[in-house]
Design a protein that fits this description.
The structure is a single chain. The protein has 180 residues and is an alpha/beta fold. The chain has a single domain, classed as Metallo-dependent phosphatases (Purple Acid Phosphatase, chain A, domain 2, 4-Layer Sandwich), CATH 3.60.21. The chain has three helices and eleven strands. The protein has a six-stranded mixed β-sheet, covered by helices on one side. Strands 4-5-6-8-7 form a five-stranded mixed β-sheet, with no helix packed on it. The chain starts with a strand and ends with a strand. The relative contact order is 0.20. Keywords: Hydrolase, Metal-binding. Its cofactor is a divalent metal cation.
């Protein structure tokens, strides 16, 4: 099973379309959304081609392939226009006999690690900074942001395939990777 991760769309139809082109090119089985889908947030600038309504409609067309969690900019009003569940603070999925703890990152993160076991994986967005590393006895993975990257990083997404996490820019170039 190949998983495609994006975080922090923040209402940009431009960058969502770019990410979905990458999703199709990668031929991933599922699209994992790590929060902050529609709203840009009070601390962020308006992103390129800000259009939350169109973002919702486009994401809904992928609803059967989406696994999603709530970001700090997502709200119950967003769930009213989104046709897949996206209000959980976290989700846990099994991947090759290993738990993946999916969350946005504003609650659970490197500084507040959830109760997960050795060699399991904490996957989150929120910081807009790509991360692929082993930290103590767990793996940390953050695909960065497709819309508003920070610290001079490119617009990025993540892939998990055959126990290899890769972070790539929107042209498919490898930025970071780590093997489980």
């Amino acid at each position: 099973m190949k998983l495609f991760f994006i975080s922090d769309i923040h209402g940009s139809i431009y960058y969502l379309k770019k990410a979905l082109e990458s999703y199709e090119r990668e031929k991933a089985d599922y699209l994992v959304l790590l929060g902050d889908a529609l709203y840009h947030g009070a601390r962020n600038p308006l992103p390129k081609e800000y259009n939350p309504k169109e973002v919702a409609e486009l994401l809904n067309s992928y609803k059967d392939k989406i696994i999603a969690v709530r970001g700090n900019c997502d709200s119950e009003v967003d769930q009213m226009v989104i046709e897949y569940p996206m209000m959980g603070d976290y989700a846990i999925i099994l991947y090759n006999n290993r738990r993946l703890f999916l969350t946005h990152g504003h609650i659970y993160n490197k500084d507040n690690i959830p109760k997960i076991s050795k060699n399991e994986v904490l996957i989150h967005g929120h910081t807009h900074i790509p991360v692929a590393q082993k930290y103590n006895d767990i793996y940390l993975f953050n695909p960065g942001s497709i819309t508003l990257p920070k610290e001079n990083n490119p617009h990025t997404y993540g892939i998990l395939d055959n126990n290899l996490f890769e972070i790539k820019d929107l042209d498919g170039n490898l930025v970071k990777s780590i093997e489980l």
